[in-house]
Amino acid sequence: MASNGFDVGTDRPVIGLTTYLQPAQTGVWDVRASFLPAIYFEGVGLAGGISVLLPPQPVDEAITERVLDGIDGLIVTGGRDVDPAAYDSPRHPATDEPVADSRTRDAFEFALIQGALRRGLPVLGICRGAQVLNVALGGTLHQHLPDVLGHAHHQQGNAVFSTSTITTVPGTRVASLVGGSTDAQCYHHQAIDRLGDGLIVSASDTDGVIEAVEVDPERHPHHWAVAVQWHPEERLDDLRLFAGLVAAATSYATQKTAQKTAQKTRKVSL
């Protein structure tokens, strides 16, 4: 047992994963449901973390903080397009039409990201998650890449992932995790346009599309917040991004436990 009370051998970090909220069919049931494809939490488990699913729900600051108290890392997952009203843009015809449940999810994830960044809790954004991180920090999105690029390679449709070659920016966290380049599984028709405040580009593809961002380490050297536009969960033979988050979450949990122990010691001494 480590002296600070956190044993990385047995007390694996708890990773919260955001979930979908939309109609779902199973057997005879056709209901509104919160759900997440299993490959997300399988990736967390294989990388050494423990998964908990976070259903979208109305939140205020107190609820957000209580949710974040129970986790050591956060993954903001894929899903429907972010409501363009969140970045003051009219909706493109190809953008998913916002409904009450999708707006609830947007607000929930914005609150979780902002709360996580305030406390330095590690964050990994995946696809939509990269877009949510960017918008949460005041950035904007290209709503339909075929209009920008002239082709639909990034999202061919019918649940068929395309492979893109991603080049990372030297010195970034993403580069330290996946190297100078990697082949990525992509399924997105939107992408980051104007960067959110405090973010830097950490990877792009051959079309110049931003494929990864992270919190600027020069401004926030102790924050671990990385977001990729591609889907690392589709390649569970490559756990480098999941492993990076789990390692950061382990460090966060160790520090959190040490702080609690120190607080208890101070109270006893008083």
From TrEMBL:
Keywords: Glutamine amidotransferase, Glycosyltransferase, Transferase. One of its GO terms (molecular function) is glycosyltransferase activity. It is an enzyme of class 2 (transferase). SUPFAM superfamilies: Class I glutamine amidotransferase-like. Pfam families: Peptidase_C26. One of its GO terms (biological process) is polyamine catabolic process. Signal peptide: none annotated. GO terms for cellular component: cytosol. InterPro entries: Class_I_gatase-like, Peptidase_C26, PuuD-like. Its EC number is 2.4.2.-. The keyword Transferase applies. This is Glutamine amidotransferase. It comes from Mycolicibacterium vanbaalenii (Mycobacterium vanbaalenii).
